[in-house]
Amino acid sequence: MVARGNVTEIIFLGFSQKENVQKALCVMFLLLYVAVVLGNGFVVVTIMASKGLASPMYFFLGFLSLVELCYCSVTAAKLISDSFTRKRVISLRGCIMQIFFLHFLGGTEIFLLTVMAYDRYVAICRPLHYVSVMNQRACGLLVGAAWGGGLLHSAGQTFLIFQLSFCGPNVIDHYFCDVHPVLKLACFDTFLPSLLIILNGGSISVVSFLVLLASYAVILCSLRSCTSTGRSKALSTCASHLAVVGLFFIPCSFVYLRPCVSLPAHKIVAVFYTVVTPLLNPVIYSFRNAEMKNAMRRLMRTKAVGEEK
Fold this sequence. Notes:
Layout: E1 4-5, E2 9-12, H1 19-49, H2 56-82, E3 89-91, H3 92-125, H4 130-133, H5 136-162, E4 165-166, E5 171-172, H6 179-183, H7 191-222, H8 228-256, H9 264-286, H10 290-308
Parallel strand pairs: 1-4, 2-5
Antiparallel strand pairs: 2-3
Helix pairs in contact: 1-2, 1-9, 1-10, 2-3, 2-9, 3-5, 3-7, 3-8, 5-7, 7-8, 8-9
């Protein structure tokens, strides 16, 4: 099943129609995408291979890195391949699939960040109950709920797109398919679908963001009774989490909490939450973490010894 109408393919305007600019952007995005894949992939492999990183925090971090890798691939891979062609085209079916996976993975990331905030809340505010509360079964259920929440969110967004008819034009001023640019191609007034999409995405973003802020506010208040060493470690962890939350939620809110209006700035802002955030997450969460750095060194030494043999 695909959306109705006589439009069968959609053309992206991208960032520029100039060939030299297009080639320069291709090189830049290719380097960024490779860095995202290597950084997040290394985090996933390190967590899977290291017995010392068996705590819930690293369990959630491994899934977050996996989601980031896939999330960036949904948009960046298509952008890079389009840079080698003069006409940047995607089928209508492919466009709707891109919207589905973009919101599925984006929604999953929002819920995972919320789960990670809850994990830090239990670890810092209820340390004596941490092992019993965040047991293996509970962690599995929380991750499953994050994936399920992302799926429900995406299904709602995609269902609304499926109900529309697209009669042309078939050009969008973006570098990937997203709900707001695609809604502008519909044959009839899209006020109600736009409102429902904003309510769907906006409610998830706002509620999750408020829950995250409330969690970290409670955590920061509880740190007054901790020792200076414990307070310093907890603040470092919370600062890393809040940095990632800000990098992801602020650009998303700028795009998805607005009416169905496409602005030139939307493309630049989209780069932040589709490419820059997945690139910085391994740096913020992992490469500043002593346990992760030690585990990575051990993994690389083990691999080097294995190659020598």
